[in-house]
């Protein structure tokens, strides 16, 4: 699995497994655990989750999936904004650790901005890092202006990543956020990397996929994975989708492919509000 470096110097895989909407239906628990374990077997050792997903249910699914495999997993979770106070973030992290059945989270993120001062959240995150409960911390759903303010706060230069919505159909971050993050060596984690399958019916995407003996979803993921400083975290809750996601790593898009994709999914020509799901 190809990796890139966080600002701390630690390596992170560029392709992982998302868990949004896992842990919501108990009848699907075994299948979700099996899918995550298959992904681990295929080298997708980055797993992204959050206390919000299934109100802790997804973290419990992940905890079961990584039993006896924790050392090989890069574990990411996120704290609710209303829990992100100096005391609340520590307590929320402790609850997440319990559900995940581990004593440390590799990367802990603020899920989105709230009324709680970001300086307070970063102070809590730094405390968690110093006590060994997390190894790195970052943010999610921050636009370029948010990031510029954040890194100038105490502990702000320790922000390791920004997780945002990014895919062929949602390219707004390319105007300002993505260039700024690259300039500051802060990787972008792309959630909903195939726009919850909404892009897959595009005829040009299908044509490119056909040339590579691939699926449209694999081409959409490959487009992200070939970019500098991008990590993709597609969700897959069945074996076929897990294997499909993994196969994206084997696709090398040509300049002709990229030009066609730009025509089908034009990059932004102006600043846009940050898209969120």
Explain what this protein looks like in three dimensions.
By secondary structure, this protein is of the alpha/beta class. It has ten helices and ten strands. The strands form two sheets. Strands 3-4-5-6-7-8-9-10 form an eight-stranded parallel beta sheet, covered by helices on one side. Helix 1 (29-41) crosses helix 2 (57-65), helix 3 packs across helix 4 (118-130) and helix 7 (203-211) packs across helix 8. The longest helix is centred in the middle third of the chain and has 15 residues, at 86-100. The radius of gyration is 18 Å and the shape is globular. 46% of the residues are buried.
How is this fold's topology laid out?
Blueprint: E1 3-5, E2 11-13, E3 16-18, H1 29-41, E4 46-48, H2 57-65, E5 74-79, H3 86-100, E6 105-110, H4 118-130, E7 134-140, H5 144-150, E8 159-165, H6 177-183, E9 188-191, H7 203-211, H8 216-225, E10 230-232, H9 239-247, H10 255-264
Parallel strand pairs: 3-4, 4-5, 5-6, 6-7, 7-8, 8-9, 9-10
Antiparallel strand pairs: 1-2
How many strand elements? 10
Structural class call reads alpha/beta
Low-confidence runs (pLDDT<50, min 5 residues)?
none
Number of helices: 10
Distance between the termini: 28 Å
Portion of residues in helices? Answer: 25-40%
Rg is 18 Å
Summed over residues and divided by their number, the pLDDT gives a mean of 97
Give the strand order of the largest sheet, numbering strands 1, 2, ... along the chain.
3-4-5-6-7-8-9-10
Shape label: globular
| Beta-strand content | 15-25%
Main beta-sheet annotation: 8 strands, parallel
């Amino acid at each position: 699995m190809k990796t890139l470096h966080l600002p701390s110097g630690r390596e992170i895989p560029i392709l992982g497994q998302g868990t949004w909407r896992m842990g919501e239906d108990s009848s699907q628990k075994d299948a979700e655990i099996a899918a995550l374990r298959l992904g681990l077997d295929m080298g997708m050792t980055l797993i992204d989750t959050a206390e919000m997903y299934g109100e802790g249910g997804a973290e419990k699914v992940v905890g079961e999936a990584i039993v006896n495999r924790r050392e090989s997993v890069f574990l990411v979770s996120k704290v609710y904004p209303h829990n992100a106070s100096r005391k609340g973030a520590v307590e929320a992290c402790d609850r997440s650790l319990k559900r995940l059945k581990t004593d440390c989270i590799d990367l802990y993120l603020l899920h989105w901005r709230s009324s709680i001062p970001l300086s307070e959240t970063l102070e809590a995150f730094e405390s968690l890092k110093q006590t060994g409960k997390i190894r790195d911390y970052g943010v999610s759903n921050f636009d370029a202006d948010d990031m510029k303010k954040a890194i100038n706060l105490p502990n702000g230069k320790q922000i390791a990543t920004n997780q945002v919505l990014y895919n062929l159909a949602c390219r707004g971050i390319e105007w300002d956020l993505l260039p700024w993050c690259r300039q500051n060596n802060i990787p972008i984690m792309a959630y909903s990397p195939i726009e919850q399958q909404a892009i897959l019916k595009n005829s040009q995407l299908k044509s490119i996929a056909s040339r590579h003996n691939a699926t449209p979803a694999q081409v959409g993921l490959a487009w992200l994975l070939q970019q500098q400083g991008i990590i993709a975290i597609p969700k897959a809750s069945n074996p076929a989708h897990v294997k499909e996601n993994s196969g994206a790593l084997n696709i090398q898009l040509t300049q002709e492919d990229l030009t066609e994709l730009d025509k089908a999914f034009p990059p932004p020509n102006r600043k846009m509000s940050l898209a969120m799901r």
